[in-house]
Design a protein that fits this description.
Distance between the termini: 34 Å
Mean pLDDT: 89
Radius of gyration: 14 Å
Helix content: 40-55%
Largest sheet: 4 strands, mixed
Oligomer: single chain
Low-confidence stretches: none
């Protein structure tokens, strides 16, 4: 999965560092794991759940939407290999620590703005 985080560094510059630091575990999808790690999300920047390869894109998107409703303190994303560009190699759901995400987005915006000033 390190290759995936390397591939998204231009849009998510902190993900590779977080992954390397063990702050983004990559686990097999399970509702029990989601419920358990949701309660411990303050210890992680994100959790990537690999889903079964038979899950289609629309189902994955629906799952992420339902999880956003049932687990609102996290930000939910999905990735499906059918989309190609910067996608995970298997269908995946990503549960992200909302507070860390807001902070990372602010830092990213500051970095990007500093680059345009130079």
């Amino acid at each position: 999965m390190r290759e995936y985080f390397e591939s998204i560094i231009d849009v998510c510059p902190f993900s590779l560092k977080s992954f390397d630091a063990g702050k983004i575990p990559v686990l097999k999808y399970s509702t029990e794991l989601i419920d358990m790690l949701y309660l411990q999300l303050k210890h992680y920047d994100a959790v990537l759940f690999k889903c079964h390869t038979s899950i289609d894109r629309d189902t994955l998107e629906s799952m992420a939407h339902e999880l956003q409703i049932s687990h609102p303190d996290a930000e939910w994303f999905w990735s499906h290999p059918i989309d190609g560009y910067k996608s995970t190699v298997v269908p995946a759901l990503i549960m992200q620590n909302r507070k860390n995400l807001v902070l990372a987005r602010k830092q990213f915006k500051l970095m990007r703005n500093a680059e345009t000033v130079d």
